Amino acid sequence: MAAIVEIKAVGRDYGSTRAVDDLNLDLRSGELFALLGHNGAGKTTTIKMLVGLLKPQTGTITVDGYDIVESTREAVSLLGYVPDQPYLYDKLSGREFLDFIAGMYGYDSAQAKTLVEREVERFGLGPFVDDLCESYSHGMKQRTVFAAAMLHNPRVLVVDEPMVGLDPQSIRLVKDLLRQEVANGLCVFMSTHTLAAAEEIADRIGVMRKSRLLFTGTVSELRQLHPASDQSLEALYLHLMNSPPEDDSLQATA
């Protein structure tokens, strides 16, 4: 299957610090890709470049053939984005916020009402959607931001640490929703520290360390590359994180 997202030789610096170095990655429709790595590995910078918030200094990123720099509007229209810190307008209700987002995508009031009701139902927002956002817990904000990201039926959903701060019921809702949408053809790119969630729901994983992608593939492929007595994803991840830097070229082949 052809890739819907193509990241080719992408690099980005912050001053003298290399944040992302020569990143190459293809993402396909109907798959959930989980990007793992330590704080500062380059995950969030990668996400911000993918959604158009930062420009790559080298290389290219395309979404369904649209270059994220040269054709930003077309590329971004195909994306939904859930950042690591959900931001809402405190003096709007959840419904008003979703109506606003629908208007930003050009839907008229009748279309917006239908789409908002769909997302209210899907994410279980009914008990609080008409309350002011300033009263929301973190989990309520996160679910509302997810709903906003899905309003326009994106082809690619980009989520940064989606499980942080959620209660177990909300985590289950998010996991089930992501797998359901992937089964319907959505491409999901997820950055997470929650290794158990990645192992449970990801089709493929990537592991970043110090700006470089060490590995891409399935958890089973990672186990084959690094056989050990403990083959949990946590153990395999820690093995990669603690391996000598000179081993990097051997680990990025799957």
How would you describe this protein?
- The protein is of the alpha/beta class and 254 residues long.
- The chain has two domains: 173 residues, P-loop containing nucleotide triphosphate hydrolases (Rossmann fold, 3-Layer(aba) Sandwich), CATH 3.40.50; 65 residues.
- Helices cover 37% and strands 25% of the residues.
- Strands 6-7-8-3-9-10 form a six-stranded mixed β-sheet, sandwiched between helices. It has a four-stranded antiparallel β-sheet with strand order 2-1-4-5.
- Strand 7, helix 6 and strand 8 form a beta-alpha-beta unit.
- Helix 3 packs across helix 4.
- The protein is globular.
Outline:
The chain is α/β, with parallel strands linked by helices.
End-to-end CA span: 17 Å
Rg value = 19 Å
What percent of residues adopt helix (DSSP H or I)? 25-40%
- Second CATH tier, the architecture of the largest domain: 3-Layer(aba) Sandwich
CATH homolog superfamily of the largest domain = P-loop containing nucleotide triphosphate hydrolases
What is the strand arrangement across the widest sheet?
6-7-8-3-9-10
Shape: globular
Order of helices and strands: EEEHEEHEHHHEHEHEEHHH
Contiguous low-pLDDT stretches (5 residues minimum) are: 249-254
Oligomeric assembly: single chain
When the domains are counted, the total is 2
Q: Which CATH top level class of the largest domain fits?
A: Alpha Beta
Quick one: biggest sheet? 6 strands, mixed
Please state the structural category: alpha/beta
**Helical segment count:** 10
Mean pLDDT: 90
What's the CATH topology name of the largest domain? Answer: Rossmann fold
Percentage of β-strand residues: 25-35%
Number of strands: 10
